[in-house]
Amino acid sequence: MDLKNEVISIKDEIIKLRRNFHMNPELGFEEYETSKFIKEYLDKEGISYESYAKTGVCGIIRGDLEEKKDRVIGLRSDIDALPIEENNKCEYISTVKGKMHACGHDGHAAILLGVAKILNRNRELFGGTIKLIFEPAEETIGGARYMIEEGVLTAPNVDIMCGLHLDENINCGQVEVKFGAVNAASNPFKVEVMGVGGHGAYPSSAIDPIVISSNIINALQNIVSREVNPLNSAVITVGSIHGGTGANIIPEKVTLTGIIRTLNSEDRQLVTRRVDEIAKGIGLTLRGKVKIEIEESYPMLINDKNSVNKLRNAAIKVIGEENVLEQEYPHMGVESFAYFANEIPSVFYFLGCRNEEKGIIHPAHSSLFDIDEDALMIGVAIQCQMVLDYLTN
């Protein structure tokens, strides 16, 4: 098979698929039309599929060869959009008010459907099984965990997983991949500080939860600067504070919300424990009461060494070694592909979609985010090459 020509032959179709997804964005676990569209496409291509996690889909392709028949590889795409009003001026702008594919998931889905089409019509070239996993709710609570709970990685058991993310900081035609830690773990938290309300002119007759909250916010930053190993990265962000109704009124309660980001399990345990201890300790010291909830959210995304090497080798065949870059530092953002990577050997890489000449420079999660659609073909080719290498060599 001439993979390059195979991909070129469906270029217009891949772009059309991406634009269809882009024009019809749906939020997490609301992707009913998106899911329906994916299933109809798989039906048209003669690819069987199963449903998972309400709106998730898993397509299944089985190779014709006996060789490597016991091998199973999983490829993942996320499919949800964001609650953003799009401000791009293009023919494929979102048709849904207040919703937009501002993180490239439309491109991810189109890439995986393109991979499905090419590999399904070349089943005689490989053995084994391919699972095409379309994950819902990546941007919110991580549909991956629910798909895993419902058995998407079993029957047959997936041996290796690969996922990608379009990246506007990397030029189109290049990819970045990293050994080890790729994305941080996250722990959202909520702190309720209870005091005693009173008149702003007479603070001694009250217990001021705003003052207590201010002390908590400042003290939490000392965890990163003085308790986490300075060679490790961690972030504690308090993103919202709500309390009070007037300038001369001491309120009864203040609510803080925030998030913790860490890159190893030891720091995750340390930081979450100390956030709890410090918040409660300051509340007690300043005569208030503190209630804190810390959620165990997305895990760290750790790339498997052998899986990274497989991806690198495939990418080098497609775009040349000079265009396969090594990601220097982990991202402190989270990625729900981590749930898959926690279960089986996996690789997650970043596919460049930046093109300054075309004005494609805006960050993900912004109302002006867009991609150089030439990146879609590169994504299809690399995914296909990795699958073919794994199911034939």
Automatic annotation (TrEMBL):
Matches recorded under CDD domains: M20_Acy1
Domain Peptidase M20 dimerisation: 189-280
Domain of life: Bacteria
InterPro entries: Amidohydrolase (IPR017439), Bact_exopeptidase_dim_dom (IPR036264), Peptidase_M20 (IPR002933), Peptidase_M20_dimer (IPR011650)
NCBIfam families per record: amidohydrolases
Name listed for the protein in its UniProt record: Amidohydrolase
Organism: Clostridium hominis
